[in-house]
Amino acid sequence: MDEYDVLKLENQLCFPLYAASREIIKFYKPLLDPLGLTYTQYLVMLVLWQRRKMNVKELGDTLFLDSGTLTPLLKKLESMSLITRTRSEEDERVLIVETTVKGRRLRDKALDIPAEVSALTGLSQDESLSLYALLYKLLGSAKAE
Amino acid sequence: MDEYDVLKLENQLCFPLYAASREIIKFYKPLLDPLGLTYTQYLVMLVLWQRRKMNVKELGDTLFLDSGTLTPLLKKLESMSLITRTRSEEDERVLIVETTVKGRRLRDKALDIPAEVSALTGLSQDESLSLYALLYKLLGSAKAE
DNA sequence: CTTGAATTGATTGATTGCAATTTAATTTTA
DNA sequence: TAAAATTAAATTGCAATCAATCAATTCAAG
Prior knowledge:
The structure is a homodimer. The first copy, chain A, has helices at 14-32, 39-51, 56-63, 67-79, 101-110, 113-121, 125-144; strands at residues 53-55, 83-87, 95-99.
């Protein structure tokens, strides 16, 4: 054990986290292609399917993304007629994002995706739950910063 | 519980994985800035500090990255005089990447980084180990694809 | 009221990440 | 051996991601 062992790739937690995240996103690709969505666009739609109407700030807080990522992505979803973007009348700084009928209809096509991805992970339900809990704990620390 | 509950953001494993990965990368930013490295460049250096000499294919297999990502990144590290890029003499298709003296010296400046990041995650050692094991299991499934 | 601070999104620039294609070199096979 | 298949890396094009900055709006203190 020399002093440099702490720098070995296999001793870092960050690396499997980073790699696993990217690999899971690849699981989604063939499932999302028929819907015409990228992974990040899918996450935005997931949120909007639940809430229907949200502003950019709330969307960013929910997904840990900032306007630099969201602005072009939302414009793209708007150009696909899945959402509308309108300024709030009470506060002109706020941009309200809302699903269209077409956007909401897309939800039905996504229903089978979670189960298919879950099967690909190779984790049992218990393992998924443990992983889930640990990740949210980590995210809690990140938010606390 | 309606049929759409499976599409709730908080019922997806992919989301905390994706968000936690990005948040951890942000932990590294202030620690890597003094070294002049980005997170991905740091991962490449971690691998090369261990092996010193590798080709692009091996590097890609290790980090789950392809030449589209690695080629420009390695050119950047070369321009910073941290590595050299040379074609193999036995097989001209193969590009050998190797650390320079300057590249190896940078290692000493990175020694404290893992401990500092680990502290920021807010996870106990046991939790880190569980998380680590689950992520590698997931990565195993991905590799098996 | 008015000035200064805070907030919200948009923009810009650099880096990643990846799929798809291309080029060059090597290996296999007919 | 010649043609076909394979392999390694580079290139291209598009979409993220994020830091930093900017502009417009709102809010708050004096």
